[in-house]
Amino acid sequence: MPHPISPPVLAEISLDLTTELAFCRHRLVLTAQHLRLESSESSPTVLAEWPLAAGDTLIFSDHAGVGTLALVDAHQRKAHWRFTMKHRAQAEKLIERFAARATPSPAATPAPVAPVEHWLDDSPDTASTLTLLRLWRFARPYRNRLLLGFFLTLAATAATLVPPYLTMPLMDDVLIPFQNGQDIDPWIVGKYLGGLLAAALVAWGLGWARTYVLARVSERIGVDIRTTTYNHLLGLSLDYFGSKRTGDLMARIGAETDRINLFLSLHLLDFATDVLMIVMTAIILFSINPWLALVTLIPLPIIAWMIHLVRDRLRTGFERADRVWAQVTNILSDTIPGIRVVKAFSQEAREAERFTAANRQSLHINDRVNRVWSLFGPTVTALTEFGLLIVWAFGIWQVSQGSITVGVLTAFLAYISRFYSRMDSMSRIVAVTQKTAAGTKRIFDILDHEAGVPDPLQPESPANRPAALRLEQVDFRHGNRHILNNITLSIPQGAMIGLVGHSGSGKTTLVNLIARFYDVSAGKILFDGTDIRQFRVADYRQQIGLVLQEPFLFFGTIAENIAYGKPEATREEIIRAARAAHAHEFILRLPQGYDSLVGERGQALSGGERQRISIARALLIDPKILILDEATASVDTETEQEIQQALDYLVQGRTTIAIAHRLSTLRQADLLVVLDQGQIVETGEHHELLARQGHYYRLYQAQIKLNEAGSQAPAPEEPTHAAD
Amino acid sequence: MPLTNRRLFTNEFNQLLLSEPDSPPIVVIPVRAFALSEPERLIALVDTQGHERAFIADLADLAADDAALIRHTLTERELVPEILRIDKVLSFSTPSQWRVTTNRGASELTLKSEDDIRRFHDGLLITDTHGLPYRIPTLSTLDRHSRRLLARFL
């Protein structure tokens, strides 16, 4: 420390912004007596110093990624400092230590209960071919069969190399002597032709076995990838789904796994065969005549170099083409569910134009890729021809010198014409590998994403415990947006809490935290005195019944939809739940009763009917905690009354948290909690809050006015096709 | 709401009536709650307004003549022909006309889309354009010809 009598440092924060919001590297240090601003070097210079008085407080605020700390007393702001939000944790610690500076012992920081989640960056680098090696994880279980496939490939390739070898003696021992006037020995000819036939038959059989074994394995690997990815996807937090488009995720699981599958079963297999063939051919050629072999193989490095040259351009090109393709499918998955809106605003032409534009973009990018790609193939072919030309020239010269026989030259030509024709198809592996690497990367993007809410290592069981909830100083931030701030709330077992507030006040976020779709950023939520992070997520959610504004029905029968949370429920239980939810009678009117199909492609049900099915679904699992998120918001008043009856029955004896826009639906609530900008501003019961003439009173008045204005035109309940 | 002391009978219009202890009898219609999966159990008796008046957990628990009345009304009201053989399919793209032999005689049905073929257990339920359901209780009972035709739509 450069200061000889420097008091101990209590806390410090890196300030990377000046008060004028220019980037800098400063440090704010808190001691028992001072706040000191210094440059952040190893031997810091003190830039400013503020002595601390008894009435001083530190206030933290943030806006759009920039945090501000202000030192204020009763009369004025004495100083302020700015920093980017990456230093927020330091700021919080500083404030904590600042408040506790009078007491010398350092404040105990609570240990985090669950491991801190960390998100991997979605696109850390471009897809390298090495990504493909990660597929080994899926190939491992099949390694024995893969090995078998490899040996079959080896044998099959060797068998295909026999025929050109036999042309050599056929030429030298049969045809050339015949031209020179000798007779053809049928025995020798028969021997060689028999050998050719046998080689062809063996190659055919081995080729079949190899393709069959490896195609079966790759099909299984494809299925494994698909199911693993889907299972992992289901475990991810709601956050992830919010930030990804359905079309994109569907393409990843569907098309990309298929592409990997095709690559493994077809392209990689072919490539391996080709490489084996080239190696074996090279060995044979060198064993026959090293000089001619050398000349024959000269074009090979040139082609390899070309492949390397084009590979990078093709890779980025194909990745872009993929992304544009995802855009095209995204437009489809955007528009088709929203077709009513499109038609209502007669924007078909606009949507068509959007689709055309995306396709044009796709065309443009593919054209660019194809420009390189189209040059690639013919060049390889041309090089093949040049290669043949060289072999012919060198071979004729050698024959004329008498160093090789005509038979050797024929064998060489037969070998390399096969060899070069394979080079052509081998060059295709570049593009395919790149595409598959890109696809693999997109798959592993999902697999690398860790589940948002982790399970504890030693979970406790929430079963058979009273469902008393307590929120203690709960904070929730999304990115740098503060959504909930210091919420403390007790909900006794069996009580009903009504959450009230403007939209965007944090009501839905609060119930999402209680349902543990997300974890709190700070503070804790206690279930019967135990932090909910100490339970396994699945165990805890079993205690919760959820009724949402937009009930979602899966494609299936009504009975299956009601029994979604309890598939083993008996038919009598299902009927009992439906009766309690006032759904029984309308279900009986459907053609097959409880066996009728609903959901997409199923029976058209009205919003109220679907809502009652979802209430029956919640009733059937008999949850201890019930969350009603605007359960009656999307239906008209008359239907609402019917749903309300069902809800009244549902909430009995359960700890209920209800969100409602229509305050009248919360008349049963034991306690109303008014939220505003992420904070609790008022709590109390209906009359009490009205008498207080605060936030709740204003909301209530506004709604009465709205009802008076709206009562002239009651909206009819229109059946909507359940196209969720 | 089991039947308990209430009784079932028919009137001159061949309607099914349910006697009520304190009021005149009411016309009821038997409705199967699980029309496909549980035809003999869980039957509701609803009035003409669609309100449930009685619920029968199992026809076997009823007095024999009450059960017979309900069965009779159900068979009179509900037609679910069982397909015994698919004779001819006019086109393999929907809408497609089928000539079928059923347990109720030969019929012709129009299949609007493949979505109208529904699997349940090991059988199929095929709903034609007009909403009439045809049943195939088990696929294996069909002959080879019918199965081959059907396979084009599954």
Question: What would you say this structure looks like, in words?
Answer:
- The complex is a heterodimer of chains A (724) and B (154).
- Chain A folds into three domains: 91 residues, Roll (PH-domain like); 320 residues, ABC transporter transmembrane region fold; 117 residues, P-loop containing nucleotide triphosphate hydrolases (Rossmann fold, 3-Layer(aba) Sandwich), CATH 3.40.50.
- Chain A has 724 residues and is of the alpha+beta class.
- The radius of gyration of chain A is 37 Å and the shape is elongated.
- The C terminus of chain A is likely disordered.
- Chain A is built from 21 helices and 21 strands.
- In chain A, the strands form six sheets. A six-stranded mixed beta sheet of chain A has the order 13-17-18-10-19-20, with helices on both faces. A four-stranded antiparallel beta sheet of chain A has the order 1-2-3-4.
- Chain B is mainly β and 154 residues long.
- Chain B folds into two domains: 70 residues, no CATH class; 69 residues, no CATH class.
- In chain B, 14% of the residues lie in helices and 40% in strands.
- Chain B is built from two helices and eleven strands; from the N terminus they run E-E-E-E-E-H-E-E-E-E-E-E-H.
- In chain B, strands 1-2-3-4-5 form a five-stranded antiparallel beta sheet. A three-stranded antiparallel beta sheet of chain B has the order 6-7-8.
- The longest helix of chain B has 14 residues.
- Chain B starts with 7 loop residues before the first strand and ends with a helix.
- The chains are: A alpha+beta (724), B mainly beta (154).
- At the A-B interface, helix 16 and helix 17 of A face strand 4 and strand 5 of B.
